[in-house]
Amino acid sequence: MFIAHYMGCFFYYKGMDSLRVNNDGWLISEDMLDTDIWESYITAIYWAFTTMSAVGYGDITPVTTDEQRYTMIAMVLSCGIFAYTINSISNIVSRFNKNSGVYREKMMYVNQFLKSKDMPQETRMKVRRYLDYVF
After folding, report:
1. Average of per-residue pLDDT across 125-134
2. Beta-carbon neighbour count of residue 12 at 10 Å?
3. Which of 1, 12, 95, 117 has the most crowded Cβ, counting Cβ within 10 A?
4. Would you state the pLDDT for residue 110?
5. Does residue 106 sit in the same domain as residue 58?
């Protein structure tokens, strides 16, 4: 949401800049000159979300070269952010699986030790429950 806000605001800025310099841009092509700022903001945020999700419906398109450059940069940036997010989630799951494997291995050794010492079943269960709680 945070990144989409800034991407949308900058897209709106680029549209205003293109309007000022070239009297052209996405604001003219979308007939957004006479609308209030909130409608323009929502349209720019909508563009940012469709661009970030790599859908890009094409209903709001950059017109000038500057707008097109910014759109390409925004696409690359949002792909990088998406890749970073997926990588972070993957690392968390990987760490969890590693910790889970270590836990299972240690419990196997504990179970073997308890059986080798002929501990009563009730005591073995209490030890396992305690270790489960600690883990």
Report:
1. 86
2. 21
3. 12
4. 87
5. no
